[in-house]
Amino acid sequence: MSTKSELFGQVLHMFVKRQLLVRDDDSDEPTPDCQVESDYDDKNWGARISSIFVIMVTSMFGAFFPILSSRYSFIRLPNWCFFIAKFFGSGVIIATAFIHLLQPANENLSDDCLGGVFASYPLAFGIALIMLFVMFFIELIAYKYVEDFIVPEAQRAINAGHAHTHGMGNGDYAAKDFEENDSGKSADEKNIANEDPDSSVQENDSASNYLGNLLAVFILEFGIIFHSVFVGLTLGCAGKEFVTLYIVLVFHQMFEGLGLGTRIAMVDWPKSKRLTPWLLALAYGLTTPISIAIGVGIRNSYLPGSRTALITNGVFDSISAGILIYTGLVELMAHEFLFSEEFKGKEAMGKMVVAYIVMMVGAGVMALLGKWA
After folding, report:
1. Between 20 and 30 A from 317 (CA), which of 24, 126, 197, 244?
2. Which segment of the chain is annotated as a signal peptide (predicted)?
């Protein structure tokens, strides 16, 4: 019995001693210094200035063209072009989340020079995970608010309007915003719609869908804007990799803008919000060029490999990754393929397969660009 106790004690002693030795070795191991000198090499000055304007043009084109095409007949493209742009853009956004955000975020937050908790825990994935739950919570609250307040209020307004025979009921305030959508209907059609209970249900669904799409677009814009700021700063301060990064970011920003612009164009914007889509596209188009200009201005003092820059870039890229992963998988994939009316019925199977292939191509192209940027 004593022999077994002694053996157990020896094993326990060896285990504890080994753990202490490992801990001592880890604590004594020198940590590499973070970057203290700028990568800027004072070359390609003309190209750096041109990148501000070239990337502004390509970003603006990607963001504005789908909106323009959906509004004006003289540049309106066939429906299949918009269809391709829509699902290609979805693939681009999903690949951006994983390849262009989450991977660099993990690389920054696990850099050897940071040490401490950064070396012992995958913080980038943890932050992205938190953002997934935050986005889901926000959407839960938003839909609950629509269900409990917006839809009942709209229903009361419609019922009040029905109480007046062809009159101006209390529901007119809800209809004014969407008068553009009804402009093509005759007076008889409008009266029938106002008196039809099924039409009231459709109006409630339309309001709910509008608010859901609005929330999704703003979340998408928020995530992409975050990413665009650091992309611009990186390009403005880049050293020997500037030329490669410049070429890749031209396509990167155009494809990303195409994905965002297509989603903005899909929202049935009411008359009172007619400027909102243009402002959203403009914000995207200007963010990266302004960030490049700032990067050029601070090129000698900004250190992408410094402790502050690594943590800041890593945290914000992780936040953006979580936002875009949620938006891409839930809003752009699940809603579009599983819950949308576009692919209902057996006859839509071929169309769904084409959309899926286009989305994979978009993701593949954006993922390939991740080899250089």
Report:
1. 244
2. none
